[in-house]
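Let us work through a complete example step by step.
Step 1: write down the sequence.
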Amino acid sequence: MANNRQRHDAITTGNICLVGLMGSGKSTVGPLLADKLDFTSVDLDAHISSSLKRSIREIFEEQGEERFRAEESRQLRLACANGKQVIACGGGVVLSPENRGFLRRQTTVYLKVSPEVLAQRVGAAKDRPLLAGAASPVQRLATLLKEREPLYLDCARITVLAEGKGPHVIVDDLLTRLPAHESPETP
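Step 2: predict the structure and record it as tokens.
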């Protein structure tokens, strides 16, 4: 255990960003990983909601996706300006080339989950604007994954298959795979 703790202490003072589609486990894994590393846990969607004083669904409905994406980029820049954080990003954060640049300068982890498992996890969640009105959540998630997975892979240094495993198992897997002695640049 002491040897494991020394390894964690040697892990970058930069940030660890978690990316993946909605339901992939970013908001669950993030705080657990942050606790193990003695990092701060940041949930971008929570910061966006707090900043705009609306739920994500309300932001999409009242102000539109473009406004949401602009605030998402702003919150990512703010979060990446600090170090020693595990940042749970929204599923669409990779849509912006600027955001992908920020993510490439961090230790970014892609939590990969199949559309079928994602649909089971999020169900017919009415608070998920991109699933609203979808006749088939599985099909909608498959379409989103097809569009976004190349972008996740482009940014990620580590890919973790995050289905069929509990969050603590995913965290333990990540702790063995995170680079030691590496200091990603901050923007």
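Step 3: interpret the result. The radius of gyration is 16 Å.
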